Amino acid sequence: MRKYIFAIIITLLLFLPLHASAQIKEIIAEGTYNMGDGETPTVAESRALLQAKRTALEQAGTYVESYTKVENMQVTKDEIQVLASGIMEVEILDKKRTVVGDGFRFWVKIKARVNPDKIAEMAKRVKEKSVIEDYKKIQQAYDKSQKDIEELKKQLAGAKGEKEKKQAAAKITDEERLFQTNAWFEKGYQHWLNKEYDSAIEAYTKAIALNPNLAQAYSNRGVAYAYKGQYDRAIEDYNKAIALDPNFKGQHDRAIEDLNKAIALDPNVAGAYNNRGLAYALSGNMGRAIEDYNKAIALDPSDTFAYQSRGDAYAKKGQLDRTIEDYNKAIQLDPNDAKSYTKRGAAYALKGQHDRAIEDLNKAIALDPNVAGAYNNRGLAYAMLKNMGRAISDFQKACDLGDEKGCENLQRALRER
Question: Could you give the domains of the chain?
């Protein structure tokens, strides 16, 4: 049974309301797009939605800027745009398509909600240099896509002969794929900003499926895996990113250098130590990572992420008792976090305490029936207890929820049954 893989999943940080009296801003916006020959309705509708979102974002940015001034937050213009983009929640109110000439016009109406309670937490997130750069690249890609598709539509309209038309149509198809890739990449980016790491991984995976050569998507997915404590998978993605683009090599060293400077300027920011600890963990230096998490905890004893990350680092060093102590603290801070129980259950399983592991994993599943890792880990515990029926059932559930390790373990269990 040693071949089974234990998934340790990191806990998402809590978003605690800082201003109970703050009003949620609601914005209504519309977008339109005229679909031409060679384009697909799905992408055309997405382009209309993008226009509506950008219109709403302008108003959201103005609202966020006013709020940060009242709260005396030190944020730049660029940071405000990213901040507003990160916290803006969009709901489609209505959409329709109408015939215009020889094509269709797509119209979308949305409601965007901006919750000021999230601004303070998100403001810390966007201080990282790479966040601003990533946001600008996404917007530049959209601008280029819009310019390119209009030019390609003109080429198709003016094409002479069937061969020329097919070539223009093929270019439009390629451009639509690039647009969809960028859309999934942006979703991954938004989920990462909100610390929704599972959703971020899913979105980046879809971007990679559309463009397997997108080095930045592998790199960003690696970051999401790292925040979940899945360092092996993070390193695998980083290696892939470096193979596609050697410029990604040395990224950890540069990150550490930047964080060294940030800490020198202000040594009392827990987040800087957390991020540097993560960079050290990714480079395999668990000792230095633990030192930084210690410092983060000293600055903020209620920092769940620091306890979770230090627990992960101890697990990598094989110090499971210390791992469990840190997960205990995380659960103490938030007894309703399913993923904390999932992680502690995995640690108990690694110690051979399978009954205690199952107890924790039962709790995790009761709190959130959609945590795939909890089913996978419980399946592993049942497998160790020779209860293969329950193990296979749990592996199947984990696999159904999209857990790759659950699928792998299911195949092994079925072969060894």
Answer: 23-127 (3.10.129.140), 130-243 (1.25.40.10)
